[in-house]
Design brief:
Chain lengths: 107, 120
């Protein structure tokens, strides 16, 4: 089955830049989406179609794509950005797939 | 305002049946797919399946095909996830989410989640 691979954890100091990667063979052909999930809360869409930002999401959140890897970048990380982040895409049959998730720790 | 409101937490015994719900409001319920996502304790998100309430077209993840049933009643703007015989391994938080306008496979609005606990 199709898999999206993320690092389990990323740590940054406040004000620094956090980069979270997501790798998958189908990513050159399918868009990726990113969700933020804080403890005890439902996920929130923060990036769609690899690099677009929904209304209401701070500009410090951005996304990019290169080959089989997509990257979520958070510039000027704030304490409130500490959360789990999930990438999501689909395989060729239209089956939705989530990455395993990355825990972002703000030191 | 778009809202997805899920039914409350459930505590069940192994072998029992269960149907949880997700009521949509603030948008045309029949025009958007509704998906279900499982999150086991301390674990990541898993896509279970999706339904189009307009015509009840339903797709399942291969991992959940035959394990659950997804349905919808468009007359009351509600989608459902049901089990005929629960197992302890079904203990998880279950989210419904609307497939949004941001592309083919995104979820733009999520319910608050329904915690299902299966224990003897």
């Amino acid at each position: 089955s199709y898999e999206l691979t993320q690092p389990p954890s990323v740590s940054v100091s406040p004000g620094q830049t956090a980069r979270i990667t997501c790798s998958g063979d189908a990513l050159p052909k399918q868009y990726a989406y990113w969700y933020q999930q804080k403890p005890g809360q439902a996920p929130v869409l923060v990036i769609y179609k690899d690099s677009e930002r929904p209304s209401g999401i701070p500009e410090r959140f951005s996304g990019s794509s290169s080959g089989t890897t997509v990257t979520l970048t958070i510039s000027g990380v704030q304490a409130e950005d500490e959360a789990d982040y999930y990438c999501q895409s689909a395989d060729s049959s239209g089956t939705y797939v989530f990455g395993g998730g990355t825990k972002l720790t703000v030191l | 305002e778009v809202q997805l409101v899920q039914s409350g937490a459930e505590v069940k015994k192994p072998g029992e049946s269960l149907k949880i719900s997700c009521k949509g409001s603030g948008y045309s319920f029949t025009s958007y797919w509704i998906g279900w996502v499982r999150q086991m304790p301390g674990k990541g998100l898993e896509w279970m399946g999706i339904i189009y309430p307009g015509d009840s077209d339903t797709r399942y993840s291969p991992s959940f095909q035959g394990q659950v049933t997804i349905s919808a009643d468009k007359s009351i703007s509600t989608a459902y996830l049901q089990w005929s015989s629960l197992k302890a391994s079904d203990t998880a938080m279950y989210y419904c989410a609307r497939r949004g306008d941001y592309g083919d496979f995104n979820f733009d609005y999520w319910g608050q989640g329904t915690l299902v606990t299966v224990s003897s």
